Automatic annotation (TrEMBL):
GO terms for biological process: response to hydrogen peroxide. It comes from Alkalibaculum sporogenes. Its cofactor is hybrid [4Fe-2O-2S] cluster; [4Fe-4S] cluster. Keywords: 4Fe-4S, Cytoplasm, Iron, Iron-sulfur, Metal-binding, Oxidoreductase. [4Fe-4S] cluster binds at C3, C6, C15, C21. This is Hydroxylamine reductase. HAMAP family: Hydroxylam_reduct. Catalyzes the reduction of hydroxylamine to form NH(3) and H(2)O. The modification Cysteine persulfide is found at C426.
Length: 572
């Protein structure tokens, strides 16, 4: 295996034996093969689109496949095996359609488009497609897991020999994974954008083209940032049109006496369905990690049993899931390989999965998911052990902050607020991430932190005070709500009549961990933001030459220590 897609890449270069995240070699390799299959599907899908037809199910399959390979989402070997089989069936069916429509499908196509296709007869393909789209979970065909594992060792990251081309291809694919996650959440709420699917597929095909120069790949990476903005905007619209604009909200971090269900991850549709199904059951619902911002949405406030947020960022789940006592539902990443103390109380759904952990499937024909097994288990569980007390405040997404615009502008003009610090992104278990707590604590009292994502858990429980009624930590929401921070910055630029977003008194000290942070970064670059500092370490997938391009063109930098960085930011 070779994987270097997240901030925990072993020795800062890549995991080669087992992931620091817990992903084993066969899962890592099958993830590589699934991505390869998605490239093959995209080759035909782009041809189909040129010929004037497309298939919504194909677009969705590609998005779900990308999402499942995000760090800490899915560790279940059998689900990757099954998806590779489904993917091959979809690819070969598309090829037949393209051939019938007069498209070129000859054997000089990239290997991703043709490998293994002799294993399938046309009748077999049709049967499998029928089974797949009529809700069948298992696709039976002639492939063996051994064939997949053997093939997977030839199609991974290192199959691209030139390290700069490899770096750009992977940077692009990681950006696409982030987009895919956001598209999937938007799709669950009924919002789609065909142009984003087209870009995803065009970009996947581009990673198979040896004739593409580094410059052309750089251009695609930057274009990916544009589609990242579009995807986050689509999701923002999906969330706010379904559940209202986030409001300033105090969230309880203590516990109540009823048994509880803890819901983690990012999917608000799952959140809603769980709240509906648990009403009047005597069970309380608590959010965990990235689900915290669900409390800020008006539509969820009517549920009396929606009682608070339990625990901290994802990486502390080992101990916090144990003390929670009740069932835990993971709607997306970040899942940590579970301990035996709570594995039988853990459930996955959507893109997440883990061997031996119960998975809640999608509802049939658009019906809600069935959470009854979780609810029944919760009724037999003890109530959560209290690990904290008090409240945290959030809900500062764009609509709320813009409604306070006069106050904010006045505070900037009067000098009460000297500088904003965007400290969005991810948290993680690396020791050096204490940096972000220290940094937040040591910031001068006339500065305000704008945050989104699970990075906030490093400082959202500190008593940092307020400036004229404006809290010094403004939490916009989940990592995708970094979009809100960009909207706020663009509005401030307009209000202050500036020509360039970089003239604003905003510094960017962003923490990253997985691929959604990659798309947030590319989105900010697309919006013209310069001098972003990224920590705790720079991505292993940036080759020295590609890192140099980012430094020279966008002023991207790393972090050093709090004292130095503080000086640098405040003097900039
Ligand atoms: Fe945090 Fe993990 Fe939000 Fe990331 S819970 S690092 O997936 O997407 O952020
Ligand atoms: Fe290593 Fe991160 Fe890849 Fe897991 S996702 S194998 S920790 S680089």
């Amino acid at each position: 295996m070779f994987c270097y897609q997240c901030q925990e890449a072993s020795k800062g270069t890549g995991c080669t034996v087992k992931g620091i995240c817990g992903k084993d070699e066969s899962v890592a390799n099958l993830q590589d093969l699934l991505i390869y299959v998605l490239k093959g599907i995209s080759i035909y899908s782009m041809k189909a689109k040129e010929l004037g037809f497309s298939d919504n199910n194909v677009d969705k399959f590609i998005v779900e496949g990308l999402f499942a390979t995000i760090t800490n989402a899915n560790f279940d070997k059998s689900s990757f095996e099954d998806n590779i089989k489904k993917g091959l069936a979809i690819r070969d069916e598309l090829r037949n359609k393209v051939t019938k429509a007069g498209g070129k499908t000859n054997s000089d196509l990239h290997d991703a488009a043709i490998w293994g296709s002799s294993n399938l007869s046309t009748e077999g393909i049709l049967q499998k497609i029928f089974s797949l789209f009529s809700g069948g979970n298992k696709v039976e065909n002639n492939y063996t897991i051994e064939q997949f594992l053997q093939k997977s060792t030839t199609v991974g990251v290192l199959a691209t020999e030139n390290e700069d081309i490899r770096s750009l291809r992977e940077l692009l694919i990681y950006g696409l994974k982030g987009i895919a996650a956001y598209l999937k959440h938007a799709d669950n709420l009924g919002k789609q954008d065909a142009n984003i699917h087209d870009f995803i597929q065009r970009a996947l095909v581009a990673t198979t083209e040896d004739t593409l120069s580094a410059d052309e790949l750089v251009a695609l990476v930057l274009e990916c940032g544009k589609y990242g903005v579009d995807a986050m905007s689509l999701l923002d619209n999906a969330n706010t049109s379904s559940y209202g604009n986030p409001e300033i909200t105090k969230v309880n971090i203590g516990v109540k006496s009823n048994p509880g269900i803890l819901i983690s991850g990012h999917d608000l549709k799952d959140m809603e369905e769980l709240l509906i199904q648990t009403e009047d059951t005597g069970i309380d619902i608590y959010t965990h990690s990235e689900m915290l911002p669900a409390h800020y949405y008006p539509a969820f406030k009517k549920y009396k049993h929606f009682v608070g947020n339990y625990g901290n960022a994802w990486w502390k789940q080992d101990s916090e899931f144990k003390s929670f006592n009740g069932p835990i539902l993971m709607t997306t990443n970040c899942l940590v390989p579970p301990k035996s103390e709570y594995k039988d109380r853990l459930y996955t759904t959507g893109a997440t999965g883990f061997n031996g952990v119960k998975h809640i499937p999608d509802g049939e024909e658009g019906k809600p998911k069935d959470f009854s097994a979780i609810i029944e288990q919760a009724k037999k569980c003890k109530s959560p052990v209290e690990i904290e007390k008090g409240e945290i405040v959030g809900g500062f997404a764009h609509a709320t902050v813009l409604s306070l615009a006069d106050k904010v502008v006045e505070a900037v003009k009067s000098g009460a607020i000297k500088q904003f610090f965007v400290m969005a992104g991810c948290d993680g278990r690396m020791k050096g991430r204490d940096y972000y707590t220290d940094f937040a604590e040591k910031l001068p009292k006339d500065t305000v932190i704008l945050t989104a994502g699970c990075a906030k858990y490093r400082y959202n429980k500190l008593k940092l005070g307020e400036i004229g009624g404006i809290p010094r930590v403004l939490d916009a929401g989940q990592c995708n709500d970094s979009y809100s921070l960009a909207v706020i910055a663009l509005k401030l630029k307009e209000v202050f009549e500036l020509n360039d977003i970089n003239e604003l008194p905003i510094s960017y000290n962003i923490a990253w961990y997985e691929q959604k942070a990659v798309i947030v970064l590319l989105a900010l670059l697309h919006l013209g933001v310069k001098n972003i500092h990224l920590g705790p370490t720079l991505p292993a997938f940036l080759s020295p030459n590609i890192a140099k391009i980012l430094v020279e063109n966008f002023g991207i930098g790393g972090i050093t220590d709090v004292e130095n960085d503080m000086k640098m930011f405040l003097e900039a």
